[in-house]
Amino acid sequence: MKTFSTRHPILFQVVLFIAAIFLVVFFTILFQVVFPLEEKTEDVVGTAIGRLLAGGLLFLVFIRSFKLKRQFSGFVVMLPALLFAAWNLFRYFLTKGGSVDNYVYAIVLGLAPAVFEEVLFRGIFIRNLKASGKKPLSILLISALFFGLVHVTNFSLSVINMSIQVGSAIVGGLVFGAIYIKTEDLVSIIIAHAAIDICDEMFPVGGLVLPGVELTGFLILLAVDMVRLLADVEVSPSAGGASRCGCPESRVPLIRAVAAFSQG
To answer: Model-level pTM?
Structure first.
């Protein structure tokens, strides 16, 4: 029996996103009251902690949406990109040093959006889109576009910076969405997303919240991993008309298209 979340997954996601924002605000205010910090860092750190707590609460509330036994199943797929990010962080440490506080600050600010956004937009949203009966390609495009559009709410950015951030979010949504649709491994995607945002904190470009050369390479590696993952899936029909991934043959158009392209 379909629920409201599976009958109207997009509308449910809009409502859930608004509720999640209120949760972030609540946890942010609570943290600032209980743990007052210096004024210049209170808002940023408080918001990050608020997103971490809100993401954790959403995970617990919707824990049945996640296949816990599949966690880290996609880690190997993203390992080259993660090693690339780790090397750049290590190189930054060797060349520029910095205090422990700076690294903790970057980790908190990088981990917060990763937990909050991946639980909300990959874990919950993609699960509801799947349950609604949509095909993988539709799921991927809808989830990525929705993820990009919610970044329009960053009103503090200029129009140019906002446009770039929306575009980057759509690309990230396509990469992470494709990997999650195949592996259902939320933890590895959170780690990869956090690595991007942590590097973004460590390698700012011209004062903009944009990925530098290091992050561009990181995203390219992730994209290659995504294409390789989908192209390696056997798309020929098997018993019951299903592919090796367990999806009905009619439900894997994206996998068929990528595989056909990779084979020339």
So the answer is: 0.76
